[in-house]
Specification:
mainly alpha; Serine Threonine Protein Phosphatase 5, Tetratricopeptide repeat; 0% strand
């Protein structure tokens, strides 16, 4: 319970978000990752993970917002996230 002992640990929130995402619980994963980003907004991996959670939830506008913020921190991760967003958008359009 790292969050219980250190609620201001961005890493603990990010780890929780990652674990929840692996379990397919993207809504609560996104909440944990939002807290990680709030606590440590300049860590690219946290923004990438939050963007990925948004993609998994189908919230592409929120994912794009994270991708745009990520551009300033890590262009490679921003490009990877953009490609995932674009692929999800293509699937969404195809299925519409």
């Amino acid at each position: 319970m790292a969050i219980a002992t250190n609620p201001n640990s961005a890493t603990a929130h990010a780890n929780l978000g990652s674990a929840l995402g692996k379990l397919g619980r993207f809504d609560v994963a996104a909440a944990a990752l939002r807290e990680a980003v709030r606590l440590a907004p300049d860590i690219p991996g946290f923004r990438f993970a939050l963007g990925l959670a948004y993609v998994s939830l189908g919230d592409l506008p929120a994912a794009r917002s994270q991708q745009q913020l990520l551009e300033q921190l890590d262009r490679d991760e921003a490009l990877q996230l953009r490609q995932l967003i674009d692929a999800a958008g293509a699937v969404e359009q195809r299925d519409a």
